[in-house]
Amino acid sequence: MPITFSAVLRRNPQRPTEPLKYYANIIGEGKTTLSDLAKHAASTSTVSKADILAVLESTFTKIADDVADGRIVYVGEYFTLQAGGSSTGVATAAEVNATTIKSVRTIFRPGKMIKDALKLAEFHKKS
């Protein structure tokens, strides 16, 4: 299935005085749930959907705990997750503490398999 996109009129943030231009905007369509993943895995193996769901739930709980503990989680050639964030600037290193952290986010880095899949992706303009 191709990736769907639409045309969106936007200002170039690097050149705000230039006229607006149309840009391709990727549209997320549909969703894949944990249950969908387990159902697919069950259909291609001898393991039941319930067993696969239990393994996936356990695996993703461990991933979440490790990211929250500051670990970089490598999920094979699929992806890497780690915590990142931003903080308020202060004058000295001694002033840097947990209260200077403004936000925390998840950094997702696709691995080789995902990058290769996206290289082969097809695109379809939404009418």
UniProtKB/TrEMBL annotation:
It comes from Kaistella chaponensis. Keywords: DNA-binding. InterPro entries: HU-HIG, IHF-like_DNA-bd_dom_sf. This is DNA-binding protein, histone-like, putative. Residues 1-125 form the HU domain. GO terms for molecular function: DNA binding. The keyword Methyltransferase does not apply. It holds the Pfam family HU-HIG.
